[in-house]
């Protein structure tokens, strides 16, 4: 082959490679989309993914397959997504672990800050400080702080696992109130709530999604929500900042990410479909039922949110010595 022919072949090959990503993006989606939920079925993150996935699948003409991969504070599912092809066919919905887990688990097999591209901040779901309703002397946030100061390190708070928003909400509470309580990590919210109701642990900063049915039944007493404002589903429960710990705020959020390198056109299309799906009345009912407050954001707004959240939690984890290793 002479040099001119070689140059022609090379030019065609190079042009083909350059054109491949836009072609891929234009055809997306041409097959089912896997939506990884790094938590067990039945919780708020799972319910959000299923509601939005069902609506988005109708718009895009391809099913969203929910793939629950719980474990290790969301790290099992996140590691899977980080190593998946950046072609728009694998995405993940997750929460606070995206900004906390690198500090909590120094030996991660992925980098939350470098291995993912943001798609959208979907919702905020408040946590709520609850206790067993049979405790006669604990009726306010101030009561919790007073009891903890009287018995340093003896009172307990349960969580759905290390690194969960439930765990970190409690850690932030202790840091700001300057108290000591013992963290008891469970494998999921359900067994933690069971022991809280049974009196085996004293408190929990549970997700409003799982706590509300037990608050409504009278088994748990709600003392304060972790967000700056009251929740629409628990309007009579004050924010912790108003009920005894000024300045306290933890606003657990659910957001969507894809592997880094996913074409920007796919990210934008996915963002548009998901944010539009959140306006659907049926999706709205599902979100309201789990206590979720709709946000919806651009990828850039989510990135800006992460830059605010990441140092906040890194500082708390370092100062409170919460690292798992």
Task: Explain what you see.
This protein is α/β, with parallel strands linked by helices and 325 residues long. Helix content is 45%, strand content 18%. It has 11 helices and 11 strands. The protein has helices at 3-27, 44-60, 75-82, 97-104, 141-150, 165-177, 189-198, 208-217, 264-277, 281-289, 299-320; strands at residues 33-37, 64-68, 90-94, 116-124, 127-132, 156-159, 182-185, 203-207, 220-225, 253-259, 293-294. The strands form 2 sheets. The protein has a 6-stranded mixed sheet, with helices on both faces. Helix 2 (44-60) links the parallel strand 1 (33-37) and strand 2 (64-68). The termini are far apart.
């Amino acid at each position: 082959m002479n040099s001119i022919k070689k140059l022609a072949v090379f030019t065609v090959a190079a042009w083909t490679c350059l054109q491949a990503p836009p072609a891929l993006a234009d055809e997306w989606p041409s097959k089912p989309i896997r939506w990884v939920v790094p938590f067990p079925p039945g919780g708020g993150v799972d319910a959000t993914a299923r509601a939005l996935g069902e609506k988005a699948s109708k718009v895009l003409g391809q099913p969203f397959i929910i793939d629950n991969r719980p474990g290790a504070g969301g790290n099992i599912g996140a590691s899977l997504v980080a190593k998946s092809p950046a072609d728009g066919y694998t995405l993940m919905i997750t929460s606070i672990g995206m900004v906390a887990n690198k500090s909590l688990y120094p030996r991660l097999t992925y980098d939350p800050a470098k291995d993912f591209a943001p798609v959208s901040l979907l919702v905020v779901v408040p946590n709520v400080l609850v206790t067993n309703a049979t405790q006669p002397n604990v009726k306010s946030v101030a009561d919790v702080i007073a009891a903890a100061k009287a018995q340093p390190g003896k009172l307990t708070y349960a969580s759905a696992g290390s690194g969960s928003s439930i765990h970190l909400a409690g850690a932030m509470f202790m840091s700001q109130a300057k108290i000591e309580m013992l963290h008891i990590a469970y494998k999921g919210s359900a067994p933690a709530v069971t022991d809280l109701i049974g009196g085996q642990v004293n408190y929990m900063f549970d997700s409003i999604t799982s706590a509300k049915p037990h608050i409504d039944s009278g088994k748990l007493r709600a003392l304060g929500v972790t967000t700056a404002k009251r929740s629409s589903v628990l309007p009579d429960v004050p924010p912790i900042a108003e009920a005894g710990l000024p300045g306290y705020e933890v606003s657990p959020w659910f957001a969507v990410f894809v592997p880094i390198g996913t074409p920007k056109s796919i990210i934008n299309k996915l963002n548009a479909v998901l944010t539009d799906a959140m306006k659907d009345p049926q999706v709205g009912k599902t979100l309201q039922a789990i206590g979720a407050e709709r946000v919806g954001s651009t990828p850039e707004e989510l990135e800006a949110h992460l830059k605010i959240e990441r140092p906040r939690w890194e500082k708390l984890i370092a100062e409170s010595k919460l690292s798992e290793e």
